[in-house]
Amino acid sequence: MTRDASCWHIFASIFVLLVFVFPVVGCGDDDDDNDDSDDVPNDDDVNDDVDDDLNDDNDDDVNDDLNDDVDDDDTAPVDPYAEMTPGGGTLDEILGISSHMSRGAAYNWKREFEIEKLVEAGVKMVRTDFHWYSIEPEDDVWNFDGLDTMTDLCLASGLDVTAIFLGSPDWATPGGTADEIDPAQYADYTGKVAEHFADRIDHYEFWNEQNTTRFWKPEPNPDKYGELLKAVYESVHDNDPDASVIFGGLSPLEVNFFDPRGIWNFIHRVHEFHPDICDYFDVLSIHPYTFLQQPSPEFDLDLGIYHFPTTVGFIDLARSTLADIGCPDKRLQFTEMGWPSLIIGDQRQAAYLAHSMMMALANDIEIYDWYTFWDGSGGASLPTEDYFGLFTYPGDTQDTEAKESFLALRGAHRLLGDSRYAGDLRPALYLDTNVYALVFADDQGMWTVALWRGGPAIWEEKNIVVPLPAGTDGSWTLFDQSGDEIESGISENGEVEVAVTGITQYLRFFLN
């Protein structure tokens, strides 16, 4: 979203209001500060009934597309772990934040605090705006002071930076529309940035949610976007051959949301104007916010003429779309993902963060950027925009509090930071499709099973029996979502019974 933020198109919001009589979420401004969410209603008492109507996350009917090889075969392997091979990135390698930290040259305590807490939570990437109008306020007059300060502070703490090319100065677009941008002038700006940061930044994202009228005025223009993306790609690679150019993060709800090609149809429309577009980006970015940013990541809405998929469905559709246009091997990032704690509460926000992180890691997502660090200051154009943060808004008092979402992020880092996805236990356990048991392992032989139930009723329990693999001594430890130990023991029969809820639990054991 950047704090100009992932604003759902007005017509789509009206459609949803008429169908579901449900509040709209998700518009924003471009402030660098956020708001306190602790005084809002919390969790299941707030919105379970509405979420159930929206969601219909039934245990038997929710998607099983997290892993397509979940089937009804009656023959389970004796040791379901035997054929699992950990691969892909580790959790710490994919964690990022879509941030509004200060881009000024002066000391800023909120920025210092944010960087400290991001490091504590294992985050590796900070995504933020590199506005053209700030960098080149007048033609050929350049200002990098604040961005230099911010970038150097991040790098000194081990945080990489994704720079978003966004916005335009009045001198380049006197009418205030992106359609006016001269590709040569834009290439000059983006090339200058790539040259200046060549030894410090390797990731450049071109625009943000360009498939919405919020970010591309007067309306999304796939032809113009493709033209400028080509200019960006060439200018960046001319000045930094090793850098990655990212196709700007797409909103899942846009002007053409009834297009039969699905949620990410903007990619198809760019390809229609530019059949060679695959040659002009390295990575595709999507923003797989759930429907109006409130249901769980397991939620699937299929109205026939309109399908809003699960988080994993978003991934599958993005990859099939890339295959359709001729570049199936492009890397895929979530440069924004999140839920506002207003309405759904802090506990569900934290649970959905944990669920979606595990899904991203299990499906080879290169970067998972949570939106965002601070709650808002109350100035956003719609109320929920101020409640996406990991920390409450501190105001001028420097009095802030970690939300449960931060504790969930830090807990996952502490338990799974060095782990890679190994496999899915559900086929072996014959679990219904709304109970998840994803297996992760590190290089030292520590294996962890992430366990949860999908859907809005996060405190509803389901008892399951989790087998331990051959080669363990039966010792196990169960941790909660925040990374605190719940219980431990030694299994005499090679199994552990766990009461699974919507709050993620981590069952760990060592495999020789």
Brief sketch in words of this structure:
With 512 residues, the protein is an alpha/beta fold.
Written overview of the protein:
With 512 residues, the protein is α/β, with parallel strands linked by helices. Helices cover 29% and strands 19% of the residues. The chain contains 13 helices and 18 strands. β1, α4 and β2 form a beta-alpha-beta unit. α9 runs parallel beside α10 and α11 packs parallel to α12. The longest helix is centred in the C-terminal third of the chain and has 22 residues.
Strand content: 15-25%
Structural class: alpha/beta
Query: Radius of gyration in whole Å, from Cα?
Result: 22 Å
Q: Tell me the number of helical segments per DSSP (H or I, 4 or more residues long).
A: 13
Distance between the termini: 44 Å
- The tally of strands reads 18
Major sheet: size, sense and barrel closure? 8 strands, parallel, barrel
Point out poorly predicted stretches.
Answer: 2-77
Topology summary:
Blueprint lengths: L9 H11 L23 H12 L35 H4 E4 L10 H12 L4 E7 H4 L9 H12 L3 E7 L16 H14 L6 E6 L13 H18 L4 E7 L14 H9 L9 E4 L14 E2 L4 E2 L2 H15 L5 E7 L3 H22 L5 E4 L32 H13 L3 E5 L1 H4 L5 E7 L4 E8 L8 E6 L7 E5 L5 E6 L4 E6 L4 E6 L2
Parallel strand pairs: 1-2, 1-10, 2-3, 3-4, 4-5, 5-6, 6-9, 9-10
Antiparallel strand pairs: 7-8, 11-12, 12-13, 13-18, 14-17, 15-16, 15-18
Brief descriptors of the model:
512 residues, disordered N terminus, alpha/beta
